[in-house]
Amino acid sequence: GVNLMEFSDEILLHILSYVPCTDLVLNVRRTCRKLATLCLDKSLTHTVLLQKDYKVDKDKVKQLMRDIGKEIYQLNMAGCYWLPSSTIDHVTRCKNLVKLNLSGCHVTSLRLSKMLSSLQHLRSLAIDVNPGFDASQLSSECKATLSRVSELKQTLYTPSYGVVPCCTSLEKLLLYFEILDRSREGFMLSGQLMVGESNVPHYQNLRIFYARLAPGYVNQEVVRLYLAVLSDRTPENLHAFLISAPGSFAETGATKNLLDSMARNVRLDALQLPKAWINGSGLLQHLKFNSPFYFSFSRCTLSGGHLIQRVINGGKDLKSLTSLNLSGCVHCLAPESLFRKAEDDIDSSILESLVVSCCNLRHLNLSAAHHHSSESIGNHLCQLLSRLKHLLSLALPVCSITDVAASVEKPPTTPNLVPQTFGRKVRIGVQTYPKNLGDQANQKMESSVFWALMGSLRFLETLEIIGSSFSSAMPRNEPAIRNSLPPCVRAQSVGDSEVAAISQLTYLQSLTLAQLPNVLTGSGLISIGLQCQHLRTLSLANLGMMGKMVYMSALMDMLKHCRCLRDLRLEQPYFCAGAQFFQALSHCSSLQRLCIVSRSGTLQSDAVMSFMANCLEVIMCHMFMGESLTVCKNLQQSIVRSFQAERPALNVVIFPLLHEDLTEVIRDVPMRHLDEITLFKSRVAEEPPNLWW
């Protein structure tokens, strides 16, 4: 037999690098002398990642800091919402810290001051700014540390500059605005900064400016205050300027001056602007780029002609571009937007120019638009995209993947003649589907353009296929949507065969499928479960007919093979979360987070409790169904009482989907879960790659 301890130190260190640091220090190193030495090797203690170590508690953090605090140079505790604020006090033992991420942690002004006062080597910091934050409570030692910080990520839950004015050496500034327009008491909030918040930020050394806004006018008011300083004097070394703002964010005189100054004085490598700042302006014609690696024109009315002329510039210097977000750009593949309907065919020559010029793309988002290919042979969107051999993540609208001949000639199947917005609750029995996967492949028309595309992108890790008219039943800060728009006519033929084609992606880790009308049995899901063994995140929404959960049996068969699945999100009207479903889901031994959104959906409380008892890794259970408030509250309380002590990170929200207080419940969900799984959105090329660690 082979003795593990006979391996070389290099091999053992590589193996140990996959073990969470808390386990290495608190458990593994106590097994023998050799491991006791290896577990404290600098390669393993230099960077400590606790951000998704859901089993860590305050006592483990305290012991970890005692044992190896002086050896830690990078500490990531992002999203550790379950740890009490007193846990942060132990970070002071890490005297040599250079990078610290406390996003999502509970930190008061006084605690932050005490901690930063002892971290003289700190250069990178991420924190939240919550109501009650008072910069006047920061000590002079704390401000001295902040003056040396060159990278700051700040999430704002209240109008404030936070610690930005203290950071006089900033080179990278990331701002996340999560301020609500109304207080819990229902009072309207103002975007004006609090008294004592008039200090001016220092941007003279800034190289990267990024701002992401949640919906709401207060967020827009506050970000304008941050931008006001930039409009007075644009940093000479600025090379990435990114603002992600949903809805309408109007351009003002100050922002126009800022953009004019940028056009004159800087050369950018990354750009994202609100749609109102780009639409109808000649801005892109005047901006200068160096070696761009990220562009986002999400929801802009930018035409393909302008995209080629002003951005791609005839293919010059675009080999450096690795990430491109054209989500919601309905005219980006057409020569002109004037007099063009969103459903008209795309101009394949524009897409071909894009593919040739940006041949090193790794992340591409074309979702939320109607990209209909013409009948020209060899010019289908899927055929052109198959040339992008370096793609790691891809988002496409459903109507873009259908074969033109199939969508034109194939009449709608009988089930799809049923109106999409109505449906009776039906009993879910065992569905019939091909048991022989070989038969499935034969049914699939392996000559289809989408099948060929999936075959050519063998190393794709993230795939999103989303209906161009799909909208989730639970948007941010608004009541739940009761009716959904019907799918695009071109998308009517997309169903089981296209889903089966995805099973060719051996290295697939994240899959999102939304509004595929012709899913009749879900048989393609079984192929994915069998072939895509690295799948960690699965999101399915509105597959097949809206009034029936037609793919339940196939989904249960699929889940039995998903041993690595960690996150599952299901959004489907009339979903029955019963004993059979949860029994199948229990095979997903690695599952950590579950979210179910279902208008008129039902659940069985006993089945949910049994599932939580069997799946020991589950720390998030969100269900927004059609059950009564009493049923939901009782189940939520039972889960918390039974499992909270053993699972410190447990977060449970079970609530009626159409209840008027849903938005109040949503605001208490930890941002990590809300942003990553509970709210539906396209995540491909949402941010530049490696924006933060």
Concise account of the structure shown:
Pfam families: F-box-like, LRR_FBXL18. The protein contains 25 helices and 22 strands.
Describe the structure in your own words.
This protein is α/β, with parallel strands linked by helices and 693 residues long. The chain has a domain at 320-402 and 449-472 and 487-565: Ribonuclease Inhibitor (Leucine-rich repeat, LRR (right-handed beta-alpha superhelix)). Helix content is 29%, strand content 15%. It contains 25 helices and 22 strands. It has a 20-stranded parallel beta sheet, with helices on both faces. A two-stranded parallel ribbon has the order 18-20. Helix 7 (140-147) links the parallel strand 4 and strand 5. It is globular, with a radius of gyration of 26 Å. The relative contact order is 0.07. Mean pLDDT is 89; it is low at 408-435. Residues 1-48 form the F-box domain. InterPro entries: F-box-like_dom_sf, F-box_dom, FBXL18_F-box, FBXL18_LRR, LRR_dom_sf.
SSE layout and pairing:
Elements: H1 9-16, H2 21-26, H3 33-38, H4 42-45, E1 47-49, H5 58-68, E2 74-76, E3 99-101, H6 109-117, E4 124-129, H7 140-147, E5 151-156, E6 172-177, E7 208-213, H8 217-232, E8 240-244, H9 253-265, E9 267-272, H10 275-278, H11 283-286, E10 288-296, H12 304-312, E11 323-325, H13 348-357, E12 363-365, H14 381-385, E13 393-397, H15 404-409, H16 437-443, H17 449-456, E14 462-466, H18 496-501, E15 510-514, H19 523-531, E16 537-541, H20 552-559, E17 567-571, E18 576-577, H21 579-585, E19 593-597, E20 602-603, H22 605-614, E21 620-625, H23 629-643, E22 651-656, H24 662-666, H25 671-678
Parallel strand pairs: 1-2, 2-3, 3-4, 4-5, 5-6, 6-7, 7-8, 8-9, 9-10, 10-11, 11-12, 12-13, 13-14, 14-15, 15-16, 16-17, 17-19, 18-20, 19-21, 21-22
